[in-house]
Records
---
Amino acid sequence: MTADIVDVCVIGSGASGSTVAHEIAQRGLRVLLLEEGRTLPPGASLASVQNGMDSAMVPSAAGTLTPFGRPWTVCALGGGMTLYAGIAFRCRAIDFDTRAHVAGDALDPSWPIDYTELRPFYDELERRVGVARLAGADPFEPPSDPPVLPPHQYSVQGQLIADAGARLGRLPFPTPLAINSIPYGGRPACHCEGPCNEHLCPSGARADARSPFTGIALPPDALTIALGSKAVRIDLGNVSRADSVEWVDTLNRQRARVRARCVVLAGNAVQSAALLLRSAQQAAPNGIGNASGMVGSGISFKISGYVSGTTTINPHITPQPGRPFSTVAVSDHYLDDEAPSGLGGMIYEASSPERTDCDGEIRLRLHFLAADQPMRNNAVRLATSRDGLGLPKIILDYRTHPLDKRRLGYLSRHASNLLAEAGVKQIDYQDSNYQFGSGHLHGGCRAGLDPTQSVVDRWGRVHDIDNLYVADGGFFPYAGGVNPTFTIQANALRIARRIVTQLT
């Protein structure tokens, strides 16, 4: 591989990398996909694979750095989509320009595109993978084509939550899921065969990184996937063009290099920023794309938490084991004058795998989340200490903004009210530890029109490099108040189409 020359080198095989690699390869261009991880074994869960993933340094309450950061969702072929819950919200129109709702010390949260531009890619992606949802039920749902799949039925827990929400005057609706409610796209319907979130799907009903490409034949030798291959550095051919990517085999520690006409970063928001920073060289002494010092800045993890508790159920109702992780959601508090800054977030069922009742009681659990302020000082940085591959360790220098702490409290109160209305007497609060990273990774290579305040342009192209793109959640200048996977995929498809026009 050392002497190889390809059209495009894509780094990362998750939601964005798989989308970009397949879209470009099917056009007849030669693509090399570098993936640091490997294929997950049958029965894998997040708990079983987390110990094998590198950690990052994060600040402790005392101000020292501790190795508890999570710079990955999942380091494996397929990335986070291998173990995610299948939640497939679209960002709402407000998420693309929240300047009226952020703190005065925040970075510009406005995207250089709006929902209208991204909508056709959402619609196409939904047809490819299948999303089960109920049109018009979500009061903040943006315009879209009709659903291709009917929604999933509420679990017993979901029904109790939906009934409680309706009594409070809310408008609960089925959580949109990239999990087949009926057979679709060559995948079966979900038969509730086991735990869902943070586990491999036992039936294949849940969409993964391969799902958009089922039935799409690629030209021979168009796509090469190199597992266990960590990109460690990008070298420039001149001040405005990337020439090659250096990578290391994570097993034998041998290094190799591939030259490419175009390089696409799709590792995740943290890993892509770290790679640019590691690529400091004479033409880019502070890291590639970092002339204005913005690489790594504005990293966002979404503020979030959980509330849970038990309630009594009718003894004649039998809970269904293995329903999807989330079947009902409430978006009434997304935009609310009572919320701090007027912008709240989402609340949805997040049922634990243990769905059986005990002595006539059943546990209800809600997840609440909102976008955090994009702050300049919340950043990915490189440590002076080294990891097992000899690379600088990653620092996630992140602190929750005071406004976000108030917004989190506002959502926690509304989620608790829902549980209380559902009959829960003792409500327990659980930290999500979002401040350490992991599931929702955004920013760090933020998009914008002003090169002094952003890293990439509206197409994901690094401002001062003609052939280097960022297609993952690092693109997000504002995290948006919903799960990001579906938006990452839609935006990656948009970027991939642009790259094809530039190379053909």
Note: Residues 402-421 form the longest helix (20 residues).
---
Amino acid sequence: MGQCCFSDCQLYEYLYIKEDKTWTEAQQYCREKHTDLATVSNMRDMKRLNISAGGQRDVWIGLYDPKDVNRTWYWSLPGVEFNESETNWNTGEPTDKGNPVSENCGFLYKNLTWADTGCQHKRYFLCYDETNKTQKYHLIREMKTWQEAQSYCRENHTDLISGLKQLQDEELKNVMKSTDQEPYFGLFRDTWRWSDGSSFSFRHWKNDLNNQQYNSDQCAASAFNDEGRWKNDSCDQKKPFICYNGDF
């Protein structure tokens, strides 16, 4: 395979299967005839997925939410791995006290330490821009939910600020001096897992899923009447689906 990774090399192809199956039936079909149900690692993959499906009905992809797993922290920016031994939580955090909605999204205190909060709350947020040579970090002074903030950053910049390297940058420290707000950044956690065991953190949910429950025993479908954004549905529903062929 060489030194390239899933998100950089197209060593796989997506295949639209126009047969209505439950998610488990679709998974079995893909594993028998191809590699597995589709895994999506970034927006480039998402565009290819849209093309392969040809704007058809909702289709199953390889993301599911099992009952018996713990929530895992991820970074929003694809390719940045979360390391439990390299964190900067504020004292006492994460608290996860947002009953009945768990606290699954991160925000920054003025001193750049982290805290968790409910993703449905609206805050300023921090975007990262890898193509801007003069300004990498942007404080967006608009009140949005975490998911709305993620969509904004991906549409107008690169993504929410993610990873210790970005969070320790002097440029970001200067940006934070300009506000007394406590903005969102690219930290989130969930219980969703990929069928092929990949650890990719990429998510492309519809913006009305901010209050979704976890360990829901549901599966993810790409909704092509909503630009391919994902929604959760009962795994027993029958839908067409997308497999991938690949060599990992």
Note: The chain has two domains: 19-67+193-246, 72-190.
